[in-house]
Amino acid sequence: MDLNYTHGLIPVIVQEAETDEVLMLAWANDEALRLTRESGFAHYWSRSRQKIWKKGEESGNLQRVIEIRVDCDADTLLYRVEQRGAACHTGHHSCFYRDIEGRELTARLFDPSEVYANKG
Amino acid sequence: MDLNYTHGLIPVIVQEAETDEVLMLAWANDEALRLTRESGFAHYWSRSRQKIWKKGEESGNLQRVIEIRVDCDADTLLYRVEQRGAACHTGHHSCFYRDIEGRELTARLFDPSEVYANKG
């Protein structure tokens, strides 16, 4: 179906299919969406690095996409995924590990300095 | 905590607290966030109407905000809510009622023409 991209991008809510936990928000362009649908693994557009990015290509924390849903205005996607390991680069399972006061709600699963090159 | 707004806005993923269903994606500015925290009911920034909007003010389908979470980069919010009635203006409980092929996954709960003035 026709999607409504803004400046070539569409936000993607990523939800763990097994637990229904919301893991992250990312952005896709039409190429990232095509790669996701062809491979079955989530690909996004990195706004900071300005390039396509396969989720987990460095950390191994891949996202297998079980289902793609579209919202009423066709301007947001919902990926329901199988998340290997942690979704968040901080080592937390979900990127939403804090409340609005900054209090941590969940523990880290890994130390980022051991997983990502040139970080930490 | 300090949030990272883009052009004054931050995306808000809205999830039903009881069921963990993802209901919608909306946008907030600092004023909408303040009104949400003060009132306990979700307020957003309407990009199409360029104004603050209290969710459900017309339809009665209010969202009581149980918890606000922040992601790792502090550039996305997650509202966990109690949703009265349907979240979607189409009458579906969630805005994500279709798959990427356009197939409807869930039934409508109401007829929009009976709920919204000047529509339908």
Radius of gyration of chain A: 14 Å
Can you identify the CATH superfamily of chain A? Answer: Phosphoribosyl-AMP cyclohydrolase
Helical region count of chain A? 1
Mean pLDDT of chain A: 95
**Largest interface: pair, residues per side:** A-B, 34 and 34 residues
Distance between the termini of chain A: 42 Å
Strand content of chain A: 25-35%
Taking the sheet with the most strands of chain A, its summary is: 4 strands, mixed
* Widest sheet: strand ordering of chain A: 2-1-6-5
Number of strands of chain A: 7
The helix/strand class of chain A is mainly beta
Order of helices and strands of chain A: EEHEEEEE
| Domain unit count of chain A | 1
- The CATH class assignment of chain A is Alpha Beta
Low-confidence stretches of chain A: none
User: How helical, in percent, are the residues of chain A?
Assistant: under 10%
Q: Characterize the quaternary organization of these chains.
A: homodimer
**What is the CATH fold-level name of chain A?**
Ubiquitin-like (UB roll)
**Approximate shape of chain A:** globular
Pfam family, one (chains A, B): PRA-CH
Binding site for Mg(2+) (chains A, B): 71, 73, 75
InterPro entries (chains A, B): PRA-CH (IPR026660), PRib_AMP_CycHydrolase_dom (IPR002496), PRib_AMP_CycHydrolase_sf (IPR038019)
Enzyme class (chains A, B): hydrolase
